[in-house]
Amino acid sequence: TPKTCIFDLDGVVVDTAKYHFQAWRRLAEFVGVAFTHEDNDNLKGVGRMESLDYILAKSPRLFSNKERLALADQKNDDYKELIKGINAAELLPGVSDTFTWLREEGWKIGLASASRNAPQVIKSLGVEGVFDYVADAGKILNGKPAPDIFLDVARALNSAPTDAIGVEDAVAGVTAIKAAGMIAVGIGDPALLHEADVVMPTPEGLIECFKLMQAKA
Ligand code: BG6
Ligand code: MG
Questions:
Q1: CB of residue 40 inside a 6 A radius of ligand 1
Q2: 217 has a pLDDT exceeding 80
Q3: Would you say the pTM of this structure is higher than 0.80?
Q4: Labelling 151: which of 46, 135, 143, 202 has CA 20 to 30 A away?
């Protein structure tokens, strides 16, 4: 029976995916390359330096390590400016009720975010107390689509991967959940997230989905 729920953060718990998008697009403009919505979909869930390198690969120029680090900082400064004022009002619809329901039903709740800003974001949202474990993105060897971060959370929560459900808005994230041997719930476009076991447009349907899974198990 699934009794562990592992959440992605950006685009699942809170609508910060749009801020990452804005900051990356600004960075792309700064180095003179295009940044499309398709690029953005490819970068969801992908770590900061990997995302930067994806964008820089579109440029004919070569960038030194020093330049890369400066550009990554520039994007992150932009991003931090964009999320400065976020609060619980930016939790996605259904998230708060889902946390309450999971707690009442005795589930464990983990966070598997690739973002190094995750601890600050959950604090701003006032939900840091909800999580039994928050993965440290800086300590995960292989980023999404590798399963490492989801396996790290399951291990920390003493949960078998087969007893865990992962919730993701990113293609790379859904791939990571499936590679970890977990049930994947996608939030977003079913055509894009076709690897997921279930896809819903927003987290509003999560409680019903978990109830069905509990009943079936
Ligand atoms: C993921 C986001 O959660 O974290 C990506 O989906 C982001 O858009 C990545 O690039 C890394 O975040 P940060 O905050 O460490 O730069
Ligand atoms: Mg995400």
A1: no
A2: no
A3: yes
A4: 202
